[in-house]
């Protein structure tokens, strides 16, 4: 199936829900779904071939730096507030002051659009840094500095959130009830992606728009549910 910028989004959502996973499958290097103008085979690579650096502070705590959390300051991003597709600042929020931030993050500062990945409890949540605010990278969450000549941040986020990637990472993970992914697991992880950065950009933009549309309809649904609740309360005293 080919899609272009004028493809009806709602119609596509219906098709997507009823279809299989996106991207090449069963050994094929050609995905079922493409943007018009792209026909080259996708390429299989080792995951870390696309990554310049992994930012990983697992095990680091304020106490190990002879410091402590503050009531305000820079939000710490952990596996509890990095959700799938967004950051929830209200979930188990911890903050660090300027001194803690400098001691913790100097030389490995996070940037807007950078991809975050939760390694355990839960494993596999993927989000991107939403703005230019400064954040502290905390427990059970890592960030990737991409090799910008090989992969875009937006495409990496889509790739890691795909069911295919999640299933493969789950098979490489360790642990019983609480699955966890290590650097060693990621070193065995292989991905298939377009060589064309332009195709990657189009895919990344498309799924960002899809997420925005879903969020918009979710807000509308919540308002309708509140409206319904109000009518029920007034009609059935």
What can you tell me about this protein's structure?
With 237 residues, the chain is α+β, with helices and mostly antiparallel strands. The protein has helices at 9-18, 98-105, 153-161, 163-172, 183-188, 197-235, and strands at residues 2-3, 34-35, 43-46, 51-56, 74-77, 95-96, 115-119, 123-128, 136-137, 141-146, 190-193. α3 (153-161) packs across α6 (197-235). It contains six helices and eleven strands. It is globular and about 55 Å long. The strands form four sheets. The chain has a four-stranded antiparallel sheet, covered by helices on one side. 35% of the residues lie in helices and 18% in strands.
Write the layout of secondary structure elements.
Blueprint: E1 2-3, H1 9-18, E2 34-35, E3 43-46, E4 51-56, E5 74-77, E6 95-96, H2 98-105, E7 115-119, E8 123-128, E9 136-137, E10 141-146, H3 153-161, H4 163-172, H5 183-188, E11 190-193, H6 197-235
Parallel strand pairs: 1-2, 5-9
Antiparallel strand pairs: 3-11, 4-10, 5-6, 7-8, 7-10
Helix pairs in contact: 3-6
For the CA atoms, what is the radius of gyration? 20 Å
Query: Strand tally, please?
Result: 11
Low-confidence spans: pLDDT under 50, at least 5 residues? 17-21
Sheet/helix structural class: alpha+beta
Report how far apart the termini are.
Answer: 53 Å
Say what oligomer this is: single chain
3D shape = globular
Order of helices and strands: EHEEEEEHEEEEHHHEH
| Separate helix tally | 6
Strand order of the largest sheet: 4-10-7-8
> What integer is the average pLDDT?
89
How helix-rich are the residues, as a percent range? Answer: 25-40%
Biggest sheet details: 4 strands, antiparallel
Beta-strand content? 15-25%
